[in-house]
Each structure stands twice: as structure tokens, then as C-alpha cells.
# Entry
Amino acid sequence: MKKPSALTGLDGIAGLRADFPAIHQEIHGKPLAYLDSAASAQRPQAVIDAMVAHEQRNHANVHRGVHTLSQRATDAHEGAREKVRAHINAESSEEIIFTRGTTESINLVAASLGRIRLTSADEVLVTWMEHHSNIVPWQLICEQTGAKLVAVPMTPEGELDLDEYDRMLSERTKIVAVTHVSNALGTINPLEGIIAKAHNTGALVLVDGAQAAAHLSVDVRALNCDFYAFSGHKMYGPTGIGVLYGKSALLDAMPPYQGGGEMILTVTFEETTYNTLPYKFEAGTPNITGAVGLGATIDYLSGIDFEAIARHEADLLAYATAQLLELPGARVIGTAAHKAGVLSFTLADIHPHDIGTILDGEGVAIRTGHHCAMPVMEYFGVPATGRASFGLYNNRGDVDQFMVGLRRALELFT
Amino acid sequence: MNDLQELYREVILDHNRHPRNFGELEDADRVVEGVNPLCGDRMTLYVKTDGQRVEDIRFKGTGCAISVASCSLMTEKAKGGSFAELETLFEQVHAMLTGDPPDAGSDLEKLDKLAVLSGVREYPSRVKCASLGWHALKSAIEGTEEPISTE
# Structure
């Protein structure tokens, strides 16, 4: 396994840029400034190599064959599960369920846990800053069970209104589903207090960790969350692979989400007995290469100090925010005290979609739109925003190029 | 950068800044909602017809420069047009925006001022923005009044 080319510290992080082949290309004759990692991060060569090597030499189905390739594939797949366990400090690898991504992880919990835990007397508490993937699965199960979905409001800075959260928590609250880091605003939520208070009233807590996994070191036992969901591709790994962490006692009590091969022990037409954890929740042939890639991603990240990543991204965020605010008509959406490397903004009355096209002409990739968080847009009274997001491979040069593009947009539109 | 100027021509910037026929139409007999979920564009098209011809037309909503300008240009062109003429125009504009079939949109003279929208063809992600208002018009004259989405 190739280790990161440089290890810790601010300078060390800067050196990691060389590990990401996709970053080193030209778009419309300009060097690429990739500021869309919150949508999907680029992958280091080590991850790409690990996936190619698996495809070339070790592919077979897992847990099924007695032959050598099947054993190799099983070892790689289960080895990746153990890496994930260690990375988030779960107690046991049976608490690590592989899924297609955060969305499937949340749908799994909503459908399976919701079925046994929710009645028409109950409430599911989400927040105004959730991604649609942490709203809609709960709406679906609430429709089926008659439970009520309620949303904790935000402050004008884009922080959760914790007083309101305290007021809304009650014995009716059975599940609290909250994001670790807001994808549209960058807000880092104070999970410890949120989780402890939910537990005090008897609610279980699911954390949407999609935006956190690449930026914060996550310790599920320290957080004491009941479920934690995240995706490979937002943490420099492949798409199509994600993780659901769940406390084993809860996962044990939950019914299967999908039926099929792998998740069973015995099947007759009268009765099926389910497999043990984590396989009970992994029906069908899994994304084996994806799991291998995720394992390689964790190997890569394990050589890097997450605090150094956080400092590096905080520096870029501060640098970009200060420059942006010098532009006429610039507004930053989301000004929480604790933010990850996400800069959501509007500029004069130029529609973000036009800004996105103009920036692309300058080689700068940002996300524009509602970021799958329409309630956030509604709260701030904007139809859409532009969003620049930072990864460990970005540098101040990327921000400078971003500013060139924004000035160009102002020139064209005013 | 020339490509961008090809997309954001002065006529488009002008129609974005000062959209024509903007606002509600009290006596509209056909109202169509249009949404472009990708960028959050939302518009409502109000059409007053005599059953065969567009007598008056207005729109309101929010959107990017391309969708607002295209919709504004569309209302100018549609006002007074017969349903049959506008169906044909829709096909011509659609062909110009998508380049499919490749030669169909080449007769830009026929499209007159609408030819300024031809730059959109080089930006596949923006074709939906430019066609939003036109799909709403088609829905209105076909009388379906179904909400339309360019996803």
C-alpha cells in the first residue's frame, strides 16, 4: 500500500495534491480548480491502484466459493470492513454494514427501525438543514406508520436552534436524525449534546455523516450515536459504496431491509432464518471492488493527521470568504461559528447557475443549485446558491482562480 | 472566453435584466407551472387563448439568465401566434437548442431574434434552462396544463 507522499502539518497537506491525478488537468485551457468535493471528492492514485489490482487479480464472489479467488475477494472485502471499524472506532466489525452510500444507509434505518419503533403517537425529529436524503426516507416511513415528522429550526447564521431542539424533544420523539456537517452551509453541529439529550428522553439518534467523513475524525463510541451513515466518494473513495454503523443490539433487533442471497441462513417456502450481523443487512452480491477501494481510502487517510486537514481547509475557507466579501453584492449563506470547508454564496442578482457556467469557463468547478436541501434555500429566501467546497488537495491558487471567475461574472452581468 | 460571450449575448443579458411580458395575467385561461430541479428555476406561464391562437401571454418566476431570457423571448414571439405556428416554432427552437437533428436548427434566419439562443447548444447542462419556457408553452397550447419539469 502506497502511503501518502507527505504526512502531517500544513506543508505536508499541501504536498498531498500530487497524489490526486484528476486534479492535474486543464479545463477550457485553464488549470482545473476543483472546488466541488462536497458533491464528490477526487481519489488518490493509491485508491485507484488498489481497485484496479483487485479487478485484475482477485475478483470473484464473496462468502460463496471454496476456491482461491473467492477467498481472496472475501478477505479483501472483510478486511475493508475491519478498516472501517477501526477508522470510526466501532466496537465490532459486525456493526459495519456496507451499503451503496449514505442515502441507502438512512433508508435502511428508516424502513427497518421505523417499522418496529414508530406508531401514530410518535415523532421523528429532523432539522431544517438536512439533505433531502435525511428527510424523505423519514417522510416515507411516517406515511406508513402515521408517525409525525417535525423539523428543528435554524438561526440566521445557519446553526441549529438548540433551545428549540430542547423544547421539541419529548417522550413522543422516537428517532432524531441529524447531520454532522451541513452540505449546503458547512455548519458543524454540536452532536455530543444533541445525542445526550435525545437519549435522556429515550430517542435513538442517526447521524448523517456524509459531509463529515473527509474532514473530521469520527469516533462513534465517543459520540455515542446509535447509527452513523457515510459514503465512500465524499471521503476520496469510490462511489457506490457506503457504510451504516449501528449499535449491534439495535441492528440485531431490527428486521432485514432487503431479502435475497447472503442475508439468509436457511430458506424453505415456510420459513427463512436470517444470517447474523452484518450479513443480515447485505442481501445480494455486494460492491466488492467498492469496498476494496474504501479500504484503500482509509489506509490513505490513516497516514494523515485529520487536525492538519481541518487547519488546511479552515485556512482556505477563511481566505476565500474574506475575498468573496470584498465583491459588490456578495452574500455568504451559512456563517456558523464552526464550519467545515464549505462556502455557500450568492453574488449580486446573478443566478448561481450562470455563475457556475462562467466559472467552468475559467476551469473552476463549483456546485450550483439547491444542494438537495430545499428547506435550507427556503429558510434563507434564495432559490439556489453557488457552493465552493474544499478538500485536502485544494490550495490558495484554486481560490484565486475562483475569484477571477467571480469577477468575470460581475463584469458580464453588471 | 469567446464561447461565454457566444452564450451570454447582449440580447440575452438584456432580456434577463428586463424580461418582457413579466407578471401574472388575470384573465389567462391556461396556466402552466415549470420547474427545472437542477438549478431551482421555477416559472409560471399564463396564456390567454381563443382556443386556436395565443391572444396574450405573461410569465413570472425565478431562474438563471438563460431560462429567463429564453422565456421572455418566447413570450414576444408567441403573442398573436396560432397554435399550429407555435407547435412548428417549438420544434425549430428545440432542434436549434439540442442540435438534433443536426441540420434542423441550421436555418437560423427563420428563427429571427431567437437565433441568439443557439449558443446554448455548446453547453449541454444549460439546454434545459433554455427550453423550460418553451416546454411550458407547448403544454399550454396542447391544453394539458400539466406541471412540466425539465429533469
In short: Residues 83-98 of chain B form the longest helix (16 residues).
